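Example (one chain per record):
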Amino acid sequence: MTTFDSTKRSLPELLKDITNGKIQLPDFQRGWVWDDDHVKSLLVSIARSFPVGAVMLMETGGEVRFQTRPVEGIDPKTVTKDPDHLILDGQQRLTSLTQAVGLDAPVDTRTAQGKKIRRHYYFNICKALEGDERLEDAIEAVDENRQITKNFGRDVKLDLSTRQLECEKLYFPCDKILDPSDWLQDLFRYNQQAMGEFLEFQKKILGAFSAYQLPVIELKKETSKEAVCLVFEKVNTGGVQLSVFELITASYAAEGYNLRDDWYGSDIRKVPSRKVRFKEHELLAGVENTDLLIAITLLHTHARKQEDIAAGHTGKQVRPVSAKRTSVLDLPLESYKRWVDSVEKGFVEAAYFLKGECFYKRRELPYATQLVPLAAVMTLLGGSWREPRIHAKLTRWFWSGVLGELYGGAVETRIALDLEELMYWFKHDAELPRTVIDASFDPSRLETLRSRNSAAYKGINVLILREGANDFFWKGDIQALDQQGVALDIHHIFPRAWCESQGLSYRVYDAIINKTPISAHTNRMIGGRAPSEYLTRLQDHKQVQLNDESMDAILEGHRIPTQALRADDFGAFYQQRKQNLLEIIEKAMGKKALAGSDEGSDEGGDD
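Predicted structure:
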């Protein structure tokens, strides 16, 4: 089936349909942004019969329904509520032409620097007749009073504030291009001797506008919502990517539901918006509206699948659990309403779980994408996730995703499988979820983890903290100090300067094996000294006063081999700490690390 037609339509016909509302904008289209220079350039291009690009319209009346609005500058009260077509591409050009040519109100535009201005556009008839190369100079933009002033408005440089002045000075208003009859009558009245010049101008310039044909691609009403979204993004390469939230907002609005108010809040509602409520939890501060929609879609499609199975359907009759964009775009309004409050609580429960795993700040989360299936699972589990048996499985799944580096890139399929398989695993011990099965950790990966943006890097750091690691100098564990506002970071155990003095490669000393979280104060005291030297310096400090046994206990909390460290034996330290880190990794994943296993993707890169 052909999903589109291509044709040409005259500019006057298009502008007429826009001004009476037969052609409108879908609500997901962003506002008009063209500046004064762009408007003038467009008018010159039409006057010279240059191509200005095709426009894309979508036929209305199909299953895909959007909230609509007229083009900027048109009063919504004056147009039909049921347009025939919606503008998908060409909004800036069509809006510019509508405001400059199709309406008599001043054009709300802006300068090249972004300052808001209001302008009327004119053709200087005499300059326009001097040749095509003079057309750019022939376009004049005047203010809302139809004047150009200087000296901060005290002096008038050009005054076109009356029809008589326009006719006497031979400046033709662009808002009369499509119907110049009454202006022609006034010209005959005020400047009859210029009729010959006007008739030549009418033939050359006004005729170009009247005869101008715009290429039009028309999507048929049978086009799916997903296709509309994808087409819109392809043709609007200069803009911000259209999110499913914006598209669903326009779709729900057609059913009388304001999704923006639900997410962002409104002046009418006195309760905090969902976005604000998420921000009350530090780990949820970065949750996007699309995350919420994906989680709801997971639960909607999961419930739908259970209904299909209960009805005795088999094979392809059973609709799958899905987190794909297509499924999100097809999310019914009634399902959104059914799940949204529960899913919000599911995200909060997910934050409680993550705190239990020693994640306290958003930047510490290895994968934001893993939060979505976690919230969906929490929605279904309610408070039962705290039961020891379920909690142990949930923890193993979570760390498998992190340390196996399985939640980078496109994860829609994994998200859907994890929801299904986790819920089944909680009831049946035999079948492990795919993420737990797929997760593997190659010991050599520890030697390549250098970037703090890597998921595995973040995860291993938190695993160390989860064991209750204390600072070398300040009394208290690292996370407690962090909560108290003490400056902390991940620093080298064998200092960089010392390593370089020993001829060690940064690829070795900069790996996570040689790093641990400590306070900035401790790091300054370490400086570039050898471990044997800085440990003595720390232990003997008058504010610390620790014996070897007490300091060794702190070091062991970081999984640091004390004997090798005190002996400044980097080689022995490196191998022993690598093994110590592997032990906590294996414990978290519930399986042995396997040399030569496939490595996951490293978010942000290592170097």
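Caption: Confidence is low (pLDDT under 50) at residues 598-607.
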